[in-house]
Amino acid sequence: MTAPSQAVLRSWLEQMVLIRLAEDKVMEIYMQGLVPGTVHLCQGQEAASVGAIGALSVDDWLLCTYRGHHHALARGMDLEAFFAEIMGRDTGACRGMGGSSYVIDASLGMIGSPAIIGAGIPVATGAGMTARLRGEDRIAMCFFGDGACNIGAFHEALNMAQLWRSQVVFLIENNQYGEYTPFRDSTALPPDAPIAHRASAYGMAHTVVDGQDAIAVHEVVAQARAQAVAGDGPTLIEAQTYRYRGHSRTDPGAYRPPGELDAWKERDPIGILAARIGASGEVDEIRERLQRDVDEAADRAAEGPWPTLDQARNYVFAD
Amino acid sequence: MSSQTESAAPGGAEVVTYREAIRLALDDAMAADETVLLLGEDIAKAGGPFKTTVGLYDKYGADRVFDTPIAENGFCGIALGMALTGLRPVTEIMFSDFLPTAYDAIAMELPRWRFMSGGQTSAPVTVRASGGGGGRFGAQTSSTGESWFLQFYGLKIAVAGSPQGAYGLLRAAIAHNNPVVVFDHKAMHLRKGPLVRGDDRLAEVGKAVVARAGADVTVVASLLMVHRSLEAAEALASEGIDVEVIDISWLRPLDVATVAESAARTGRLVIAEEQYHDGGWGASIISRLATAAAPLATPPVAVSMPEILISHSPPLEDAMIPSAERIAEAVRSVCR
Fold first, then answer.
1. Rounded CA separation B322/B334 (Å)
2. What's the CATH class of domain B12-195?
3. Measured between beta carbons, which residues in chain A are less than 8 angstroms from residue B76?
4. How far is the C-alpha of B140 from the C-alpha of B98, rounded, in Å?
5. A28-44 pLDDT, tens per residue?
6. Domain with CATH 3.40.50.970 in chain B
7. Angle at the Cα of A300 (from A297 to A302), degrees rounded to 5?
8. Which of A96, A113, A126 sits opposite B81 (nearest CB)?
């Protein structure tokens, strides 16, 4: 595994800034009444997705979650299609049938983003089985949160993934809260043990990584990917990170202890990567430039037509 | 196998058991398409708890026939992931009563996945389940389960009423590009009937089958009730009542047209169903015909399960599951 080049690291920094700006924009257009339903934002978690997706090949499959805007953008989703989907327009990535929770582009290998907690974990395991059965240099990358580690699908899928050596990499974005509840209040673990510790029950490789450090995340995902493709089984990675916003649009996050948010912001993933590559002085310029892209994409998306019921009917069944 | 199944049945048909028809459908589907693979509990080396996969592990190998842990939701989700990436998995759920353990995968993920993506993905998964009473198995292993998924639009649902149905419906489901749940009935497994196999013997999706043509009364049935309705029809023939029996075969799409055409001819309609009436496919048929103002001579009658649960105690189970006599009595009642 070669370390990412300076040019690649620079592109990651731009992606992370883009994700941050896009999420802020989603909040802004939500307040303008342009977004139906609710949204689950990921400011603060950019490094986990950018570092992980940076370790993938173009053929790899991704399973994302309802807090998945950063996965979509890190994988290179078109910005206008992203915003249009969130606004429920026919020009959206999912033709307006999905929305914020479900935004995927299958042409980029994103094969699903279920809103049901943990539902993507077996699905990723199955995709990883396809790769194994066909002998392909390909994996399924499965993102989920700390809250998904207590549902049956997590345990059922990890058991079968290890049993059958599925070519899958599991990545927990542990943002410290399952909805409104600190993960340790809902997750039985030995004192101070990470959630990833649970993989040992299945004889599965596991590791914990600083989720605010894109380079560190990249390194463990690249290693896990190589292990999976070699037929040596999946890895459960826990990226420890933080969600700057509340669970959903209506949640101010008042349950968080005073000072916690500020302490995490001291370790902001954009600042960490910028410092690592000596680009701290350029972040403002990057932000200014990408802000224009974001604003223009959102403006164009808002012009998109609404889908019709006849179109919706056609998306239920394949021919 | 062949010595048991080949016979001198007319029209090139073999005579096989219903469960052998299921096994042959899986075998022929796997031979026709190398992306077809099977997942289920005890189905590989052991040949399946209901012997519906005997020999397939030896023939197709460990990469096509998987013994799963007892984890239905997990392996149905795995099947979805396989289907999204180019395979055609078939999952076996043993007893229909175990379907609710996989409700998320079958009811919430499989039918909605394609829609949520705006048609970017497709999920050709077949979920097989053996259900129904008569085995004295008690409350948690005797349901047909056939109507449980009707409100989960996005699934297609098939019910096998004969060996030919078991074969053709399963082949059609596996070849179909959408998720299909295929129900069979445990009490039919050893019942024999004619079967014509082949890649041209896939059932037509959404098409009911007229199991017996008749002029006086239309009986619509599924699974074991098809057989019992045919028995009732034979008994009623000696009383001068000519019964048409429709094996509904698909609950989604529901072939209302075939039923409506028959009922318009006979003017009399009986539903025979091994389930509670409310919320089931039988109630849907009556509703569809009523809203279309079907010209029936007498009100339709449904022969269904009484609103009690199934016990393993023989007289109690027998009282729950509609008999040929109950169906015959319902037919007589609409003829009066």
1. 17
2. alpha beta
3. 122
4. 8
5. 999 999 999 999 999 99
6. 12-195
7. 110
8. A126
Look at chain A and count its residues: 319
> How many CB pairs below 8 Å do chains A and B form together?
150
**Secondary structure (DSSP) of A167-205:** SEEEEEEE-SEETTEEGGGT---STT--GGGGGGGGT-E
The whole-angstrom separation of Cα A177 and Cα A164 is: 31
Q: Which residue of A has its CA nearest to B112?
A: A316
- Nearest CB among A119, A127, A159 relative to B69 is that of A159
Rounded Cα gap, residues B155 and B133, in angstroms: 24
Tell me B204's DSSP state. Answer: P
Helix, strand or coil for residue A304? coil
Quick one: average pLDDT of B250-254? 98
| Domain of A67, in residue numbers | 6-310
Question: What phi, psi does B14 have (nearest 5°)?
Answer: -90, 160
- How many other β-carbons are positioned within 10 Å of the β-carbon of residue A290? 19
Has residue A256 been placed in a domain? Answer: yes
CATH 3.40.50.920 intervals, chain B: 209-335
3-class DSSP assignment, residue B24: helix
Is A197 within the bounds of a domain?
Answer: yes
Whether cis (ω within 30° of 0) applies to the bond prior to B49 is no
- Could you tell me the pTM of the whole model? 0.96
A105 inside domain: yes
> A269 in contact with B at a CB cutoff of 8 Å?
no
Structure tokens belonging to residue A45: 């978690």
pLDDT in tens, B115-138: 999 999 999 999 999 999 999 999
Q: Which two tokens stand for residue A173?
A: 């974005």
Q: Which SS3 state, helix, strand or coil, does residue B260 take?
A: helix
Are the C-beta atoms of B197 and B163 separated by less than 8 Å? no
Q: What is the CATH number of the domain that holds A210?
A: 3.40.50.970
**CB distance from A190 to chain B under 8 Å?**
no
State which fold the B209-335 domain adopts. Rossmann fold (3.40.50)
Inter-residue contact B38 to B56 (CB < 8 Å): yes
> Which 3 state secondary structure label does DSSP give A208?
strand
Q: Can you give the C-alpha Rg of chain B in angstroms?
A: 19
Instruction: Give the Cα separation of B263 and B220 in Å (integer).
Output: 10
Count up the domains in chain A and report the number: 1
Question: Residue A99 pLDDT more than 60?
Answer: yes
Write b or e for each residue in B1-36: b if 16 or more Cβ atoms lie within 10 A of its Cβ, otherwise e: eeeebeeeeeeebbbbbbbbbbbbbbbbbbeeeebb
Nearest to A99, CA basis, from A83, A111, A110, A117: A83
Q: What is the DSSP letter of B153?
A: B
Q: pLDDT (tens digit, 9 = 90+) per residue, B147-205?
A: 999 999 999 999 999 999 999 999 999 999 999 999 999 999 999 999 999 999 999 99
